[in-house]
Amino acid sequence: MSSANISPPSEIKHPKSFLEEVIAATPGESHLMNCIQCGTCGGSCPSGQDMDHTPRALFAMIAAGLKEHTLKSNTPWYCVSCYYCTVRCPQSVHITDIMYTLKRMAVKEKIYNDAKAPDFSKTFINWVENYGRAFELGLMSMHMLKHNPFGVFKMAGMGVGMVTKGRMAFTPTRIKGMDGLKAILNKAKELEAVA
Amino acid sequence: MKYNYYPGCSLEKNAASYHISAMAIAKPLGMEFVEVDDWNCCGATEYVSLNLIASYALIARNLALASKNEETKQLVAPCSACYLNLRKCDSYMSESPTLAEKVNTALAAGGLSYKGGTLKVRHLLDVVVNDIGYDAIAAKVTKPLKGLRVAPYYGCMIVRPKLGQNGSFDNVEYPKTLDKLLKVLGAEVIDFPLKSHCCGGHMTQISEGTGYELIRQLVKGATDYKADLMVTLCPMCQLNLDAFQGPMNAYFDTNYNMPVLYFTQMIGLAMGMDPTDLGIGAELVDARPALAKIEIEVPEPKLVIKKPPKEALPMPSLPEEK
């Protein structure tokens, strides 16, 4: 995949290809252009068997410029962030970080195939953006209502267990500096748009 | 030693026993924790899937708040996901001036700033084994966990990835610190091959089959090795292995019954503390039969159903939805 025509990430201002786009959107040195297609990543992946493409195949697709194909793949959404691939990659490719980049791109372009995982992230973050802390009961119930209403019955036993053991909060906690946090996140999102 | 302490959202409620037990062992072991004032969620693995700069700014707010403490530049997180997020943000802000500049422009909107490298982000296990040390802990053991067979379970984010100059405080694939600690406490420690495999994180909510399979492998592994219980150091791992063990059994029609406790609870027990003072009894998979093996009696857990306050119902809604 390596090519002499690809600029180092810090110099990519106007990405000319999908590969450069991915590199530019990943923090630090992703080393993506160093991928030698060895497949150590897929072989190390605990959820690889449920992925549409192994990470190796996905990187070949990125290099080939198959943007829509890549962003529609369920692969990034099935990444469990365990970093096995990242520590084993002989070329030090920041594979897990690239999976996050692909998720962000798919969300931005709204071209994911299954909305379940992106919706989970959005619901989780909605609580954080408004209260400053995560809220498990709100997250679980809102997510289940949307994507798995009958799952509520299957999960009833566990839910009762969590409540009786005092492990489930009924109300979210709001941090004191919510105004400051909101200002920070709004500013960050403005900068995101520029990048 | 004094440390800034970042509990993280899980330790407020679902993993309260981890927090309680960490606080209980802190004083006798000589650790002084100062909770980061008004800390916020680290965004887990969710925010960075949606927004890059906002997710790093969210984490950096905590780093900025903690760095105000002039007495210590150490920041301890008991949760592996929080630990990785805080560590990664600190490390990437040091390495990437572009990211650091954007994050600081965002932080400035809230009157804060952070310079990468100011704090030293540590996991609670790292602090316990490396700052306090095995010898000091051994000296405090009054009730060795002799006869208890335990599976040390690290999970993924405590040891991976390698970041910055320090890399990782333990081996990225075959860590040994928890094994050694549990041996010091007197337990019989199995050589658990799945010790740094992933518990699946949020996968139970995204794809049941994928999530439950990862939980099944871990619980089966510990059961096959005839462990009495699994010992963990991450609230997400504990939640998946303990609370989701029931739904996992239902999914695969299996009957596993593997209790999961925190390493801080094991330290407390070995120091002769009362199990209830360590939050033991909040597990969904009962740990009492396993602990009875070494003559630790845990009283029948009393029901702690608290009626939600009136103003809590109906479910609080998010502003956008009004």
Oligomer state equals heterodimer
CATH superfamily of the largest domain in chain A: Alpha-helical ferredoxin
Number of domains of chain A: 2
Question: Regions of chain B with pLDDT < 50 over 5+ consecutive residues?
Answer: none
Largest sheet of chain A: none
Computed Rg of chain B: 20 Å
Largest pleated sheet of chain B: 4 strands, parallel
Radius of gyration of chain A: 19 Å
Count of helical segments of chain B?
Answer: 12
Structural class by sheet pairing and helices of chain B: alpha/beta
N-to-C SSE string of chain A, H for helix and E for strand: HHHHHHHHHHHH
How many strands appear in the DSSP assignment of chain A?
0
Keywords:
heterodimer, A: 195 residues, Fumarate Reductase Iron-sulfur Protein, Chain B, domain 2, 56% helix, B: 322 residues, alpha/beta, Glutathione S-transferase Yfyf (Class Pi), Chain A, domain 2, Rossmann fold, 2 domains, 4-stranded parallel sheet, 41% helix
3D architecture notes:
The complex is a heterodimer of chains A (195) and B (322). In chain A, helix 8 packs antiparallel against helix 9. Chain A contains twelve helices and no strands. Chain A has two domains: 9-109, Fumarate Reductase Iron-sulfur Protein, Chain B, domain 2, CATH 1.10.1060.10; 116-194, no CATH class. By secondary structure, chain A is an all-alpha fold. Helix content of chain A is 56%, strand content 0%. The radius of gyration of chain A is 19 Å and the shape is globular. Chain B has 322 residues and is of the alpha/beta class. Chain B has two domains: 2-123, Glutathione S-transferase Yfyf (Class Pi), Chain A, domain 2; 141-292, 3-Layer(aba) Sandwich (Rossmann fold), CATH 3.40.50.11810. In chain B, the strands form two sheets. Chain B has a four-stranded parallel beta sheet with strand order 2-1-3-4, sandwiched between helices. A four-stranded parallel beta sheet of chain B has the order 6-5-7-8, with helices on both faces. Chain B starts with a strand and ends in a 30-residue tail after the last helix. Chains A and B meet through helix 6, helix 7, helix 8, helix 9 and helix 11 of A and helix 2, helix 4, helix 7, helix 8 and helix 10 of B.
